Amino acid sequence: MQTLTLRTRLEPTPAQADALQETLERFAQACNLTLEVARACHTFNKFKLQRLVYGQLRALGLSANLVIRAIARVGHRKGHRAKHYRPTSCDYDQRTLSLRGQTVSLSTTRGRLRIPMRLSPYHRYWLARTRSVQGGSCFATDAGAGMSI
């Protein structure tokens, strides 16, 4: 089976853009807190980290799946070269991201949002033929928000 990555632009309303930015900030905050604990305890094992920080990260207002993705991001990088996480991207999986026609449904700190995507004919061609979406990454740019799926 072929894996294809498409990079699209999101067209959120101002309220949706605020919710996305808040989610990116909380996700980075969760990664930074996890990184601090991982360095203090000298462990980057995802399961040990989850036991140590899961409750604290849930208190930040992130959904359970986004908390697990933040822990996995820190555990995967093992702290090498990562000094501080900035609120520039957030990992999504098949439980926190779904496609609904020309919109994407994302889990945020303010609940589930359906955000329109700007799609070219190329994007429409491949999205019409896809069977499933395994996940993606939401990112912030100077020009707005984007998505890699």
Q: Which terms summarize this structure?
A:
149 residues, globular
Give the gist of this structure.
Strands 2-6-7-1-5-4-3 form a seven-stranded antiparallel β-sheet. The radius of gyration is 16 Å and the shape is globular.
Computed CA radius of gyration, to the nearest angstrom: 16 Å
Which strand order spans the largest sheet, edge to edge or round the barrel? 2-6-7-1-5-4-3
Number of strands: 7
Stretches with pLDDT under 50, minimum 5 residues: none
Instruction: Give the overall shape, derived from the CA principal axes.
Output: globular
How many DSSP H or I helices? 4
Distance separating the two termini? 16 Å
Class based on secondary structure composition and strand pairing: alpha+beta
Indicate the proportion of strand residues. Answer: 25-35%
- Biggest sheet overview: 7 strands, antiparallel
Helix-strand topology string: EHHHEEEEHEE
How much helicity do the residues have?
Answer: 40-55%
What is the average of the pLDDT values?
A: 85
Topology of this protein?
Blueprint: E1 7-10, H1 14-41, H2 46-58, H3 64-77, E2 89-93, E3 97-100, E4 103-108, E5 111-118, H4 121-129, E6 135-141, E7 144-148
Antiparallel strand pairs: 1-5, 1-7, 2-6, 3-4, 4-5, 6-7
Helix pairs in contact: 1-2, 1-3, 2-3
